[in-house]
C-alpha cells in the first residue's frame, strides 16, 4: 500500500472514531521522519481537544491498523494529537474556515527577499493564497508555498 492509499484508508476508518470521541478529523499524514515512519492523526474541536479524546481515538484505531490489509505497511509510530493553535492549513475546507484570520506563509525559497510572510487570509483558490498585509493584497502561487499555518496572536 502506498502512502496516499494508507492515508485515504485511515481517514475512512478514523472519521467515525473521531465522532464517537467528540472531535473532528483535521488531517492524516503518513511520512518518514528520520529513519522512522509516523502515522499522524490530527483532530480538532472548537473548544479544544482533551488528551482523553486523543487517547480514545488512538486506542480504537490501533487494533484496526493490525488488520491484514495493513500487513505490507512499513513499521510506524501512531500519533493522535490536537491540531493546535498554529495548525497547518492544507485542505480547501481548512482555508475556507479561516478566511479573515491571520496566517503565516512559509516559502520554499525567498519571495521578495523573505522565506516567510504574515497577513490576513483573504482567499484560497486552487492552491493560490491571497493575503492582506498593510492594506495591500498579494496572491501567492502554490509552487512557492511550503506551508500555511494559523498565526498565533498573543
UniProtKB/TrEMBL annotation:
Gene3D superfamilies: Ribosome maturation factor RimP, C-terminal domain, RimP-like superfamily, N-terminal. It comes from Agathobaculum faecis. InterPro entries: Ribosome_maturation_RimP (IPR003728), RimP_C (IPR028998), RimP_C_sf (IPR036847), RimP_N (IPR028989), RimP_N_sf (IPR035956). Belongs to the RimP family. It comes from the Bacteria. It is found in: Cytoplasm. HAMAP family: RimP. Residues 89-153 form the Ribosome maturation factor RimP C-terminal domain. The lineage of its organism: Bacteria, Bacillati, Bacillota, Clostridia, Eubacteriales. Required for maturation of 30S ribosomal subunits. Keywords: Cytoplasm, Ribosome biogenesis. GO terms for cellular component: cytosol. Residues 13-85 form the Ribosome maturation factor RimP N-terminal domain. This is Ribosome maturation factor RimP. It holds the Pfam family DUF150_C. CDD domains: YlxS_C (cd01734). One of its GO terms (biological process) is ribosomal small subunit assembly.
Amino acid at each position: 500500500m502506498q502512502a496516499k492509499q494508507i492515508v485515504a484508508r485511515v481517514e475512512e476508518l478514523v472519521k467515525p472514531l473521531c465522532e464517537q470521541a467528540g472531535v473532528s478529523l483535521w488531517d492524516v499524514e503518513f511520512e518518514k521522519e528520520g529513519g522512522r515512519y509516523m502515522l499522524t492523526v490530527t483532530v480538532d474541536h472548537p473548544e479544544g481537544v482533551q488528551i482523553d479524546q486523543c487517547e480514545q481515538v488512538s486506542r480504537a484505531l490501533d487494533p484496526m491498523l493490525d488488520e491484514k490489509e495493513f500487513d505490507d505497511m512499513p513499521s510506524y509510530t501512531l500519533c493522535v494529537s490536537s491540531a493546535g493553535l498554529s495548525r497547518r492549513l492544507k485542505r480547501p475546507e481548512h482555508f475556507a474556515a479561516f478566511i479573515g484570520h491571520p496566517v503565516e506563509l512559509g516559502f520554499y525559497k525567498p519571495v521578495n527577499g523573505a522565506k516567510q510572510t504574515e497577513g490576513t487570509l483573504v482567499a484560497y483558490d486552487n492552491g493560490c493564497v491571497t493575503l492582506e498585509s498593510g492594506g495591500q493584497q498579494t496572491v501567492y502561487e502554490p509552487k512557492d508555498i511550503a506551508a500555511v499555518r494559523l498565526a498565533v496572536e498573543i
